[in-house]
Design a protein that fits this description.
4 copies of one chain form a homotetramer. By secondary structure, chain A is of the alpha+beta class. Chain A has 2 domains: 2-119 and 265-283, Probable inorganic polyphosphate/atp-NAD kinase, domain 1 (Rossmann fold); 121-257, Tumour Suppressor Smad4, CATH 2.60.200. Helices cover 18% and strands 33% of the residues of chain A. The first copy, chain A, is built from 7 helices and 20 strands. In chain A, strands 7, 8, 9, 10, 11, 13, 14, 15, 16, 17, 18 and 19 form a 12-stranded antiparallel β-sheet that branches. Chains in contact: A-B, A-C, A-D, B-C, B-D, C-D. Chains A, B, C, D: This is ATP-NAD kinase. Chains A, B, C, D: Belongs to the NAD kinase family. Chains A, B, C, D: InterPro entries: ATP-NAD_kinase_N, ATP-NAD_kinase_PpnK-typ_C, NAD/diacylglycerol_kinase_sf, NADK. Chains A, B, C, D: It comes from Candida tenuis (strain ATCC 10573 / BCRC 21748 / CBS 615 / JCM 9827 / NBRC 10315 / NRRL Y-1498 / VKM Y-70) (Yeast).
């Protein structure tokens, strides 16, 4: 990180570098060791709520999880274009190795990086208990998951699309996923692999008590509403957004995934080429690996 | 049919009624029986190649197959908006019962019918054998299928997306399907159910020799090319478009599903409401039918 | 229940009727109401550990869950043949409606009831923590489930068969199921439907991070061992047997499903005919329901 | 082959070596080249019908297909134990590389080779057309397949188990597979992987018009009968046994897979160890391959 900061401040001096408070702590930690910041470097920081509207580009160093966490800081805000570096792990959101940071940073400032447009889901949690009527808006880059968690009983969920009942399902849970998330939890649950530029969302059941709940792809302009069915024996269900647990949903609460968006739901991710995805599903997932038929 | 023709010519006299030659034959057949055409009715007919560019609306009476065949007559042409009547069978393309023709015809002429936009695939078959270099363009409303047919050996196919190799598959075959076709053969082969308004196409394998060929959803703007692999033991593969067999593909031939379209690939289908599809997957497919747990 | 007890004591006077303490409580509850025990009825009861080796036949009234709970009382013991009555709910283990109890009880005592042989899994939980080295034996009629529960991270499990590593899986969990359990949780997770008289067990993954973990059927004579992988980020995993939660498994603990059985693992269930199962998968699961193609 | 024959006749002189007429032809072909038979070697040959009841051991050199063809020569006969050598290809039935033939042959004559018991299906084709009432018995080591082949319409099949209707299916076809065949065509069609020593058979649909035809595992003692449904639009269906096409089945014809066996249906295959299968599903199928998450 130190090297990248030094490089930017030397070669692109008009750029302001804003670090999260967490990053600042890391920099000052003794383990940052050998590397030290150039004297001329000027850094900005602050609480997320203060710095997030000042960012023109979001840069991350780490794995897919790091990007999800960074983007989640921009829940309810526009997300600036993302340049993400991998430190060795592979991932669908990780086109660049950190070793190539000089070339990438130069391309960024020269506007020569390609971008792939991904989308987020805008999710509203509406609580109907009078004492705590909460309407929380939150964005998901991968998926919104409702799951029974450690509850011994299956949950029953009612799913509405554009105001009409689509289905009632008794299951471990359900996933509403972006195409980006189609290679994450939805894949494990049997969902198809969807190219990230498709304008749609996946509705994938988790272990349904049914032989015929084939995964669905719905338009991204759908209004989806999910709530615990009155017949559900469980009184609450675990709500998880991009792997982060939110407070449980209870009888009467509703999840809305809305088409009338308050916030732009697009995310621009810097990419290596137009076919990173084709390469990634082969390299990362071992997509359609043929059987071995001859001696190695 | 006679009743509808009579009704239109009486109540919407400015409309010209064009029948396919096949329909004319039916009218004159003795089995047309009790019903007879009103004396004032004026009909037009001709070969498909002559009449298809004169149609403002395409009207069908029959099942989903009737619509597919009617639309296939407009392969390489724009398809006029479709008003389809069912004679008792259920289908995803059959919102209206023929018994309600009066109301529907009136709504049609009053521009009060809703439409659902579906899309076609534009498929080019390129033969590389010098003696018969053919470049056939054909449109698919449901799907393009490559299958080994009655050949005892599996086929090997190479699949390219936007010029890069996506995968090589050894299988019974492969399906490239529209969202409309996602409830047809692709569904039987394990594909997801995709809402017809999604701008994408499904790539669904048929019995692949692989544990990891999860069905894919690709952007409708993809350039897809499929050809028999050099390692395929079969020298030909059966090509079927919307259930109609075309001549076999051989080594060297290529199927292109192209993004640079020569013809508008949208089809406007008259619909009953915005959520016909939600109702249809429940009524027609028995989607997510719950298990019986109490006595009937 | 009262009616059945009265009927048995009147018509089959040599039979001793043993009730669980729980049943005795129910009988004495005011809600037992209108029905009252015949004066001549003599009942026996006691703690489960005392009465279970005295039972020649196990009779249940309720749903599939009632049978599972009753059989779980015989964990580590031979299970007597089971005659189960349904009170309205449908189930694979419920061939008889309670309304027909007279005929069924008479057939039982005349040895004229058919039986279907089902099997249990014998599961040993071996804890390796010195302070609490526990070797618990427990039997499963449906399935043994290892699941991450409400833990946010997937679990990594190592699975051994007959002493050799079969696979390492990162997943929500894994199910080891009897054929009886193949229509329960394993079915929801994508497992095949296995006839209850097959001598085998199902290994079905729950949402695995893999495209190629096809469910397996292994011989019932296999020695299966599962443990938390060293690389698992979770330190514990939820262990559930037939829907009943046991204490969590931790790093170092092992689950053994053993072939050298200490206890006979067969369960004899009274059945209506030889093909109850064929009928049940159709009636209960809606197996292979065809699509609707004509108007109802 | 020549080397193995020479080795056997030198080191195990009491053994009689029988070659199929096809093998004799190969030996005399100039391409057999460098290798020549020892002068002392005495060979026996004859038509298959004459030599098959004289064989105590069946030895094959080649791939899985070679074994299937060799075993198919013993349709309607007991199959002698099989010792199969691979010439480089991998396969579930190929435990030994041909390079190790000396050790294997010695172990064979010393009765020191392990065996794995596999089973065949006994299939009777009963034609009901008076002019050609045929009752053909044939055995399948992998699977019996009914498929529409190049017929444009799906087929409708009625499936009976033990005399009762199990289901009626509209599909591309259906597979009745042995556990041995569970890693062949049934796997491609979505069937589970079944250990070869399980006493059961798989009923796996091929592209069914249904969301709820989950693959089934039935007891090997089931009586299965399949016939073209009266409602099938196709008048014939392609019948294939272990990849070899038989004459088409027509309306009225019946396939019976019977429990009252006329011929022992077990096949003893020489194996390397008890866990060849565990190793094979990993090595050959890439079973449960984990996703790549770190740089190679």
């Amino acid at each position: 990180m130190v090297d990248i900061i030094n490089y930017i401040s030397q070669h692109h001096q008009h750029a302001n570098i804003i670090l999260s408070e967490h990053n600042i702590d890391e920099l000052q930690h003794p383990s940052a060791g050998g590397h030290s910041l150039d004297d001329r470097v000027r850094l900005f920081t602050g609480e997320v709520k203060d710095i997030r509207f000042k960012a023109d580009v979001l840069m991350t160093i780490g794995g897919d999880g790091t990007i999800l966490r960074a983007v989640s800081q921009f829940s309810n805000f526009n997300v600036p274009p993302i340049l993400s570096f991998s430190m060795g792990t592979l991932g669908f959101l990780l086109p660049f190795d950190v070793g190539s940071y000089r070339a990438r940073v130069d391309e960024l400032f020269a506007n020569r990086l390609r971008v792939l447009q991904r989308s987020r889901l805008e999710c509203h949690v509406i609580g109907t208990h009078p004492s705590e009527a909460r309407v929380n808006m939150v964005h998901a880059m991968n998926e919104i998951t409702l799951h029974r968690g450690s509850n011994p009983n299956l949950i029953s969920l009612d799913v509405y699309v554009d105001g009409e009942c689509l289905t009632s399902t008794t299951a471990d849970g359900i996933i509403v996923s972006t195409p980006t998330g189609s290679t994450a939890y939805s894949l494990s649950s049997g969902g198809s692999i969807v190219h990230p530029s498709i304008r749609g969302l996946l509705l994938t059941p988790i272990c349904p008590r049914s032989l015929s709940f084939r995964p669905l792809i719905l338009p991204s302009t759908s209004d989806i509403m999910i709530r615990l069915s009155q017949k559900s024996r469980n009184v609450s269900v675990k709500l998880t957004i991009d792997g982060i647990e939110l407070s449980d949903m209870r009888h009467g609460d509703e999840i809305h995934i809305r088409k009338q968006l308050d916030i732009d739901n697009h995310i621009w991710c810097m990419a290596q080429g137009d076919n990173d995805w084709t390469k990634d599903i082969n390299d990362l997932l071992g997509f359609n690996k043929q059987f071995n038929e001859s001696k190695r």
